[in-house]
Every structure is written in C-alpha cells, then in structure tokens.
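ingest -> fold -> write
write: protein_1
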Amino acid sequence: MMERIWTQAEVLLLVLLTVASVQGDFVEPLQAVSSLRSQTESQTRLPCQYKVKDWEKVVQVTWSKELPDGTKEQIITAHFAEGQTAFGRYSGRVKFESSNPTEDSALLILSTQESDEGKYSCKISTFPAGNFERHIELSAWTPPIFSLDQMEVVEGQPYGVVAVCRAVGRPLPELSWDTDLPGKSQSRVSEGGSVSIQYSLHPMRDMNGKKLDCLVSHPDMEKQRRISYNLVVKYSPYPTITSPSGNWYVGLEKAELVCNGRGYPESHNIIWTWKGGALPKGVNVSGEKLVFERALHENDSGVYECRVKNSVGEGKAEYLLSVSLTQRQSGDSAADNTMLIIIGAAAGVAVVVLVAVVLLVRHKHQKKNKNLKMQLKEKTDEINSLSGPGSLRRLNSVSSDPRMQSEEYILVKIDKRALNSQMSLERPVFKDSQSTLGGKWGSGGVERDAYGRPVVWNEDRQGLRAVEMDGEKEERRRRVESYVKNSNMSLDSGLPSSLVPLKAQQDDCVGPREPDLGHLQEGSPPPGGDWIPVQSEPDGQEDDESCSSYQISEALANHFYFSNGLLRPRPHSNAILLHPQPQII
C-alpha cells in the first residue's frame, strides 16, 4: 500500500479554498454596480467599504476610472505599509474620506466637474482571500441657469419674435410658455449645452400687459421655476373726451371734460383748444382734465379738442359742447328711458303676436289644404267608380219619376228620338208609304220608318247614316222601343178612354189599322177612321220584328199627329201625359 504524499502546493490550495468559503463582504455599496448623481462644482463621495474576517487582512485599495476607449486610469492608491498615492490630474482633487483607507475606502472628489462623469472602480486586495471590486457610475449634473430676453414691440409691426427664454444645464432643461396670447412658440438647442425658446405674434395694443411667463423644468429641481413677464406693446395715443355730466346749461358750476386714451407709454403732454384757438377765460387745464372754474356761459358752446403725443405717435379727439339756457330736469332722462323701455316692450309683444298669428294662419291653411286633398281624393275615387261598366249602365237607365214636363221638352225629345230612329234603323216600311231608311219616297208622299212615324228627311244626314256602326244603330233602336213601350204602359194604366187605342192589337199582328200618317196634311188633325196598312215586304226580317213595328206605328197614329216637322200629341180635355225621365246617351 502506497502512502500519498501531500505537497506544499496542494496544502496551499486547500487553505485558499477554505478561506474563500468564509471570506468577508462589502458593507457599501451592496450592489456590484450602482449609480450616483452629483452636481458640478460640489463635493462628490464615492462609497467603498470592505469588512474582513479575523484572519483576513486588506493589503491595498485602488480607485480607477474607465476611459472611453475601455482602458482604466488610476486615480489614487492606499497601501497598508506604503501609504496613499494620487495620480496625474487627480492629484490634489481627490482623497480618501477616512484616515485609514484599508478599513473605509470611500473616495472624495473635492470639486466635481463635468469631465468627472463616468464609471469608477474600487478594488480591494486582501490576504489570503484575494481581490474584490465594486463599480459606480457617476453622473455630473449642472443646475439650470435661465433668463428671459424682452423685445421692444410697437403696434403695427409685422409678425415676429416678442420674447426669448434661455437656459443652460446638465442635463438640458425643458422650457415652455404660460400665456393666453395668440402666438407661436419655437425651441432651439445649441451645441454648448444650452436651450432656448421664443414666442412670436403680431403685436396689437390690446395685448399690452398680458401674461407671457416662461416655465423651466430640470431633474435637479423639485418643481418648475417660473419667470414672470407681462408683454409690453407700445402704441400711439387714441384719445376720447368724456364728461361726468352731459347736462350743460347756463350757470352750471364745476363743469369739466376728461381726455382719455393717452397711449403707451402714457404721455402727460395734453394740449386743449377751443374752436381751434385759445380756451375761454376761466377755463384751465389740469392734467388730462379741462376744468371750468366759473359758471358756464352761453358763449362757452363750441368744439373742444384735446391733442395727445407720445414717443410712438400723436392722436386727437373733439367734443361738441352745447350750453342750453335752462336746466333740463333730471327726471326727463328717466322718463325718456322709461318711454324707451315701454316702446321696446310693446314692440316685443307685437312681434310675439305677429309670430303667433302667422303660425295660426299657417296651421289653418295646412288644415284646409289637407281637407281639399281629401275631397279631391274622394271625387277621384267617385269618378273612377263611375267609369266602370256598372256605372255606365246606371247612367243609361231610364228614370221612372212620373213628374210632369213641359210640352216643348216632350216635343223636342220626341223629335230627337224620331231623328235617332230615322238615322239608326234600317228596316223596310209599309208598302203604302213606299219609303225606306235609305231615303226612297213612297206613293203616299210622306216617308215613314219601321214604326209608322213620319221621317224628317235631311239630305245632309245621308252620309251620316252610311258611316254609323251597326252596333250603335241596334242600341239606339232598342232605346226607342223601350221608350214607346213605356209610353204604352202609361196609357194602359188608368188613363181616359180617349187615349186608349180604338182597336185591340192581336198577337199575330192582324187586325184593324189606323189610317196612314203619311197621307195626313201637316198641321191638320188626324182623321178618326180606321186604316189598314199594307203588309211590309219580307226583306229577311223576322216576324216578331214586323209585329213590333206594327204595334209601334198603331200607337203613334192613335195618340200623335205630325205638325211643322214635329210629332205632337192629340188634344184632349182629360188627357194626362206621363213621360219618362230622359236617358243619358
């Protein structure tokens, strides 16, 4: 069995590992890397303190600064046996805070500069534990310095800068404006670490004295700093003349005129004139006032002028003074005001009433238009309903109202229906008349239609008959037949015996006939004897149509006679004629 031999190096390594496991620690700063802020031109303390164990010993302390290129520059060193040593430009500017640097290694920079900003290292060398470090980043701040530059501004100048606020500091301050003026701000930063802000506007006289404050903010200040400033705008005078009392009368005491609006800067150089010349006697100038040191005279009336001049310009104002012989009562003004109020109130009421009337009339017209639209709609619906087939049939129907009508109306209607019959019907007539609807005259000398009625011939109607439609002819023929039948029904219902036909009609159309109306002289009463018409020629007409024509002719011969181109009823003392209502054709 071989024995292991421990060398001296192994023993030393074992001791170091044991010591490292029980090494001391930093009291400050606790973090390996920390930040620190300091103001320029003031003392800065960089903390560094290492607490050792009983068997440990600090041999040396070294402070260094890291340069921009990454290298380190030694600042100061403290050895437990050789003492302290400061290096280069730091000599006389830095020192240890404690007289025993190996126990408290904090470093003091007596007067901090901007160049002192950077990263510092504190290195503690101990035995037997070795080296330990702490890193501190220093920021050097410069307290802000600020100012406000005021510009001379005159009314009427073009748009431009009226104020400039400036500040320097590290880091750069922030500037802003606090104002109600209508303008525009603009900020600028210079390479030397300063910042400025300017305010621009178009100057006007009403801006004079308005607030234009500059606000400065910086991390080194707890709150904003305010630079108060009121804008100054110079302008020429614009005077106006006022008076404490406008009641000017002869004998008024202590009267005066005041000249206002003296511009900026204000001018005390005020010149008063009267009618373009010297003032009246007993009138003096006291500052901006024109004082009458005596009672007013009637000849004090006239135009008074005040002229004001300052460094910017000149202005003037005029006042027409009219002195009355008697004093106007103070109540007159109140009465005038009261009258004005009454007139205004009356005008207001009139306007309200007028508006109400206009609204009422408008509402009424709207309602009336609405009703007219409804009536128009109802009439339109009624016309549309009358244009249907059922309405046309109702309009063409014959009324059964038995009211009496005048003889002229009856004659005109009979003549019209006879004309329609002559124009529309194309049936063969009786042989004894030898006439047709085509216009041929018979041997009797009077043309008759299919119903035995005299035809009023008119040569101008031949062309009209030829062009009428068959459907219209048939319709008008049926209406004539309906009229005649209605007339026969009226004659058969309780009329005197003189209006009843003398001979009863037979179903087969054979029986007694009345004399032919075509042989009657115009204007003479028809004869009372019977007459037998010649049978009509069969031209393809049906037997029932011939029978109907015979009955109609017989009825007309019994109750009507031809006179002056018209059919007239036979005279009778007890005759009562009932005529149907006219048809709408």
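write: protein_2
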Amino acid sequence: MSTGFDLKSAAESMGEAVAEMNQTDKINFEAKQAGTDTRDDSTDSAVDEIASPPLRHGRAHAKDGRPKKPKAESKLATVVRQWLDNVLPTLPDPSPWAVGSVSLMDRNTETLVAQAPKRWVVYEPMVLLPTGSFSTRAEISVSRTETSSARLLTSPAPLGWPDLLAAVSREQQDQLWRGILLALSPKGASGVRHAQLTHLAVNEGIPPQNVQGGDNENILRSPTGLRPLYGDFGPAATLAGGPPTDADFERAFWVSTKQNGLYQTWAPRWSMFSRGNIKEKARLLAWSRTACEETTGAWAVDLYAGIGYFVFSYAQRGLRVLGWELNPWSAEALRRGAVRNGWSVRVVRRDVDLARPTAEAVFSGRYFDEGNSAKTVDKDKHDKPPVIVIFVEDNQHAARRLSGELQAFTASLPAALSAETFGPVVHVNCGLLPTSRPTWQIAWAAIVGGADRETSTAPRTGWMHLHDNVGVEELASRQAEIQALVTAWAGEVAETRQCICTAVVEHVEQVKTFAPGVWHCVFDVRITI
C-alpha cells in the first residue's frame, strides 16, 4: 500500500534543505565550522536560533597524544572582547569592576565574554540573539593575597551585563551592537565586510498569554517578547490602535530567509517564524503525487496558514491553496512571501470582503466580469484566479466556505467548467500546537465532501496532516485513538452514501521535541473514497 511519501524524493529534498544556503545560511555555516551545532528546536518562538561556536577552554588531546590547538573564538566573542578592552578602563572608580586596590579588569573581561551569547541566527537584514542575551546577572568571588599574610581575602562582586550596560553611554552600547552586525555581515568580493546586516534583537520567545490581556491566550502567536537592541524595528502599535492597515504594513520592518528553495518573509515585531519546521516542509515537498493530484483543479487546504510554512510547499507542487489565518500580520507576511516566490495571491481580510460569497474571492479572476463587485478584493492584475487565497478569520468558517459555498458553486457550473473550479481537496494541513484537534472534523469534511457528485468511478485519495503534541510513551495510544476516530467517520460516510470509504493513519512523523519527553508529531491520515 502506498503511503504517499516518496522516501527517495524525501531524501533528496532533505539533502537540498541542508545543502542549500543563501547568503544568510553561509554566515551561520561559517560559524558552525568552528564548533558544534547546539540548535534547540524544542519550542516554537519568534525564531529558532542557530548555534555559533562556543568558546573552548582547556587542552584537548589528539589520538597521538599531542595537545590540540584551542579552537578560535567566535566572531561575536571577539567583538565583545575588543569592546570590553576599550570600555572597561573608561568606567569610574570605585565601581563594580574593582575591589579595593586590586583591579578586576582581566577577570571581568573573561566573565563577561563567557556570559555573552554563544549562538545567533541571521534573517536578512537582522541578527537575532537567543533568549537572555546581554541580560545575565551573576555574582563571583574575587580572591587576592594580602602581603601581610598568606590567607585569602574573598570579596563578592556583582558582575553582569545589565550592570555594565547601565554604566556605559548609549553611544558606547551602539558601538558594541554595530561591531556585532559588522562582524557577522558577509564579506564582499574584495574580502572586506560591509554592514549589510542592520538590525540586532534578542528573541525572548512567544508568551502563552497576551501581555496586555491578562490571562487570555496569545492565539495570534505574537512575539511580544522581542527585545530590539539596534535598528528601527518599526512602530510598536498600529496607527489606529486596532487591526493593521496597509499603511501599518508599509511602516513595519520586514525580514526574510530561504528554506528548501522558497523565500519566507515576516515582520519580527508582529509575527513568528519557526525554523524547526524545515524538515516537515521538505517532507511535504517530496510527497508522491496521487492520481487525483494529477488532475486539473486539485487543491490543498491549510487551516493554520501562518506566514506560509506549508502553503508554499503545496503551491510549489502545483496545487491551488486555500488557507485560514487569524493574525493579519502573518497573512500579510504570507502575501509578501508568495509574491517573492512568483505566485499570485489574494488575502481577504476586510469585513466587507469576508462577507461576500466565497466564490467571489476565490474565482473572481475568471468567472466574473470586470464590473463585478468581487474585483474589489482582487489586487492581482491577472485574468486567472490566484494560486493562493487566504481568509483572515477564524478557521471555523472554513466548514461553511469549503463544504457549503464552494462545493455548491462548483455543482452549479456546467460540467466543462466544474473540473476547473473547486476540484478535489487532496491535502488538509492542521498545524496548530499543542493540538489542532478542533479542526480535524473540518479537515475530514474537506476531503470527503463532494465525492458523491463525481462521475468517475475511480476511488479518490486525500490526506489529513494532524499536528499534535504527544508524550513519548503515548505515541502508540494516540495513533490508535486517532485511528478509531477516523474509522468511525469513514463508517458514517460509507453508510450514508452507500459507498466504500476507508481511513488509515499510515505514518506518524516526529517533527521535533516540544518539551522534555514531548514530541511535535504529525499524523498522516490516508482517506480513500
């Protein structure tokens, strides 16, 4: 039985995902050559960090017994050390940098370098540092030998980056930030570095609750913990204090990266990016095509579209895509990324446009005259409908739009046109963590809906990709639970329509660790009807 997943293609695509690097990836690759990659993809955050080389101490030994040369400091550590050498002597005395008559400058330098970030990631033109960078506070014990006796006098001295940054001027701080950006910028053809990286920030993660909303859940996944250090990241509030407008989008700071040959764009102040999804994107790109997918008009649906993580994988394979996304900033990021990748795209976000019949937003490019009001939601200059359509609304509306309006619209068309409109849905992605369970039945209906209208007697296959957080010891039981659920749904369809309908959980993909002992899993459900 085919699983729908081509292992050979997957291996090739995964190899490309690792080997393919844009200028940003080359910078990170250079860093990793000097040390091990300690990337941690265990949690979703504003971004996931890539390791830069840790500072190595001590003398390791080769097999022949000769001591190995210590590995070079990272570019960031070198900049920090040089900055400290220039700044520490300028601090007033007495200060935390001296105890009595004994200078602690050397000890302070080593301690502060050790507390500096060991990792970073580049998303042009931004460098993002991991959580806690340049905010560490520590206390050390400083020993000195008194000349009158051999005993040691120990004096505690508060030491940490917050103390130091509070003691220096803003210009001195900016010198450090500019130095880091310059050191991490790529070299030009002449071998000279130019300040191509212009923004520096610390990733403080995605808070589970809205900061200003008390205990209400942060369902938009807004990275409100982002801590800008250098550069203009755009306004922290919209012009009207409500949903963003086109003017707000233009005022925002946008960054981009390239994965699996596809660009993704987002505004780091307003929406998240999870680098750890790269393997799952590659897996979907390598998915073997079914007979239904080869037919004209096959579709994919993403019920949690985000900035286009999986939407772009489907579009790259030649599918048309419908998506739902609550965060208008993520939807705009998806639009910008789609345009950069060369796809036509339409984002339906204004109330007046969301209230229109779904077919107007999805098919207005072909099936309505120029004078039709649906053109107000069509920003494209193409005659054809867009490849990607995103609705900025709760995905619970997807059931009405997919199983109701679009299927009814297609059924009303002549047979010659019906195959070119809302054809079979061959993939539905439910990519929310910790669980996407509230949308599973919507996904099921999108796959099986409309099957009774088809004239072909050949079976049709579609896939649901159900994301869930699962404990390591619960993988088998969760798979059995989902299997029982979809088996029951298939039985209901078979009885109602007097047809054969089967559903099998054919694969469980462990994408990445979400927390100790917990995996972000994707359950691939194969539906045949």
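write: annotation protein_2
The chain has 17 helices and 18 strands.
The domain at 289-528 is CATH 3.40.50.150 (Rossmann fold).
pipeline exit 0
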